[in-house]
Specification:
The protein is mostly helical. It has nine helices and no strands. The longest helix is centred in the C-terminal third of the chain and has 27 residues.
Length: 161
């Protein structure tokens, strides 16, 4: 029943994104790690906005807070603010080219990263370093491949609204 409804395949992509968030990488690549959870969330809210909404984003944000060991609510808040424009304007974003979509995704992830930094700065005294913004670039570059892979995955497992 859950496989037919597409819930298990959907949850599997969330789990994969959460694992990729914390998976070890070589030190020289660590700063360039794409923001996998944001990419997966943005794909699903653009592809299935009536099924994957703000509630799903909130839960994933709270799970990310626990996984990253941050103050409870930082990632949740940032992901909600990042996802709202994508949910609101999913029809437009769907019709853009991959280059335009990658730019929009980059801007949305930049907004998310700035919010996370500001909250960490206010609550924990975090200090800004330029490499903190490198994932914005790597995520925008990774977007076309993430989009194509998740679209093929969605069609294969018949994940629908």
């Amino acid at each position: 029943m859950w496989i037919k409804s597409g819930l298990i395949p959907l949850l599997a992509t969330y789990l994969a994104a959460l694992v990729l968030m914390v998976m070890p990488m070589p030190a020289f690549l660590e700063a360039w790690r794409p923001d996998w959870l944001s990419l997966v969330i943005l794909y699903w809210v653009i592809a299935l906005p009536h099924r994957v909404g703000m509630g799903s984003v909130l839960v994933l944000g709270l799970v990310a807070d626990i996984l990253m060991g941050t103050v409870f609510g930082i990632y949740a808040t940032a992901l909600l603010i990042m996802a709202y424009p994508a949910i609101r304007h999913f029809h437009r974003i769907r019709n853009y080219s991959f280059t335009q979509q990658a730019l929009i995704i980059g801007v949305l992830i930049l907004i998310k990263r700035v919010i996370v930094y500001e909250l960490e700065h206010v609550l924990n005294g975090a200090v800004f370093h330029l490499p903190y913004l490198y994932p914005v670039i790597s995520s925008a570059i990774a977007w076309p491949w993430v989009f194509l892979i998740l679209r093929k995955y969605r069609r294969h497992y018949l994940v629908r609204e």
